[in-house]
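[step 3/7] fold_predict: job queued, chain A
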Amino acid sequence: MNKTAIITGASRGIGKASAYKLAEDGFIPVINYRTHKVEAEKIAAETGGFAICADVSDRIAVDNMIRETMKKTGRIDVLINNASISVSGLFMYITPEQEELIWKVNVQGTYNCTRSALPFMINAKSGKIINISSMWGQTGASCEVHYSASKAAIIGFTKALAKELGPSGINVNCIAPGVILTDMNNSYSEETMESLKNEAPLERLGKPEDIAESISFLASEKSSFITGQILGVNGGFII
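[step 4/7] structure written:
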């Protein structure tokens, strides 16, 4: 039976590219989405996987997603915690509601999915957990304080959990993307995007496929001796 990979936030951007790449690698991709049903079902049909609607910040919804995955495939080999939101603005102007939502999706969502999938990985004594952080979680970004803090939390979560789960045969790693051409960056002006491109030594912005290739590697047996690591995929923006 093919291995199963759950990808949260997989209807667009990095998650979408990862679904296609992992299907190419022989995985059954589980396309998690919250609102983009049509897009998710199209990806599932084209990759041989299936789509499941679940708000990752909702513990009950996540538990149901994991149960449905086990019912359909009988296994969870890879969990990619990719679902994320961002709100830009000066720290003092971000509302308490926005602040809470960022934390619930980016951090609590990662906790929820990991907590729900772990019993099945531990029982199998194998598994790969791949968390998607950001280079801003490594360095911080002005006007993205809440987002940066949430992504920094993912880095700490990755390192600690890797130590805890190593004896169970489970690898936990993190990818910290640079500026990637996804909908999340649509709020930036062309001038800002051009400036960010010029700051990177490779002088280009990243594509979702760049991150998908790194996810493919960490999901494979080629990375079996790698755990607790933060892989920067940023064109050299942070060295």
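[step 5/7] annotate
The longest helix spans residues 96-124.
Residues 48 and 115 are 26 Å apart (CA to CA).
exit 0
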